[in-house]
Amino acid sequence: MPAIIAVKSVACCLISRAPQCATCLPATCTGPIPRAVNESGPVLPPANPVSKPRTKPPEERRDELMTAAERLFLEKGLEQTTIEEITTGAGVAKGTFYLHFSSKADVLQALRARFLQGVLDGIVAAVEGLRHEDWRGKLAAWSTACATGYLDAAGLHHLAFVAAPPATREGLSRNILIDHLNELLAAGAGENAWSVSDPRFTAVFLFNALHGVVNQPGIGETPAARAELLRGLEGHFLRGLGLPSGID
After folding, report:
1. More confident residue, 97 or 42
2. Distance between CA 139 and CA 238 in Å, rounded?
3. Closest CA to 77 of 155, 182, 176
4. CA-based torsion, 228, 117, 179, 132: positive or negative
5. Cβ–Cβ < 8 Å for 228, 213
6. What is the model's pLDDT at position 81?
7. Out of 29, 67, 92, 147, which residue is the most buried by the measure of CB atoms under 10 Å away?
8. What is the DSSP code (8-state) at residue 82?
9. Under 8 Å between Cβ of 95 and 121
10. Residue pLDDT, tens place only, 24-72
11. 101-120 pLDDT, tens per residue?
C-alpha cells in the first residue's frame, strides 16, 4: 500500500482551489488547509464523525430513577432507602435526582401515577381489541384486565397505596381507571347495551368492589386461584349491569 505523507503547512498557500488554512493568520494567508495525500492517488477526504448525544432525554432519565427507586423501595422499604442509593442504581450523579424529584415522597407519588397508567394501558388494550358492538365482552375484559394489573404489581400497589398511603382517599372515588369505566358504562348505555341511570356512581361502586377483593393478602397466588378469582369478578361485573354472567 502506498505511504501516506502529510503536506507541510508552509506549502498550504501554494495549492489552489482548496479551503482556507486554519493554521495561518487571515491577514497573511488565504491558502488551503493542509491535507494528507496519497503519493499515487487523489487527496483523501477528511473524516466526518457522527456526533452522538451526550445525555439522555429528561423523561428517560426520570423513568430510570423511578425504576431504581421502585426496586429499592420493594427490597428495603421507603424509609431505609437513601437518595444516593437511588441515583447509584440509576447510574447518575446524586444531583441529577433533584432535577426530577424533590424527595422520596415525590418519587413515590410518581410511582403511584405510573402504576395506575400501567393498569389503564392493559385495560385499554383489552377493551379496544373487541368488536364495537360487543359490550358484554368489553365489560368482562375491563374487569379481567383491571384485576390482572393489580395482581401483577401487587408488591408495588401495597407499597404505594397501603404501606405508604396517599394523603387523601380521593383516589378511591376519582382516578383514571374509574374515569375510563365511567366512559365505558355511559357509552354502553347510549347503545342500549345495559341500563344505568348514573354511570359515574356505578363505576365507583364496581371499581371499589374489585379493588377490595384484589387487595386481600395472598389472593390469586396460584394460576388456578387467579383464574377462579377473575371468573368471579367478571361474573359480578356482568350481573351488576343486569347481564348474564355465563357462570351461574
Report:
1. 97
2. 7
3. 155
4. negative
5. no
6. 97
7. 147
8. -
9. no
10. 334 444 444 444 444 455 555 554 544 444 578 999 999 999 999 999 9
11. 999 999 999 999 999 999 99
Q: Which of 195, 50, 223, 47 is nearest to 135 (CA)?
A: 195
Q: Please give the model's pTM, rounded to 2 decimal places.
A: 0.76
Return phi, psi of residue 94, to 5°.
Answer: -60, -35
Q: Is the dihedral of CA 196, 115, 118, 137 positive or negative?
A: negative
The C-alpha atoms of residue 3 and residue 90 are separated, in whole angstroms, by 49
Close Cβ partners of 179 (under 8 Å, ≥ 6 residues apart): 203
Report residue 6: phi and psi, to 5°. Answer: -95, 135
By residue count, the chain amounts to 248
**Does residue 7 surpass a pLDDT of 80?**
no
- Pairing, β 4-6 against β 36-38: antiparallel
Q: From CA 200, how far away is CA 178, in angstroms rounded?
A: 8
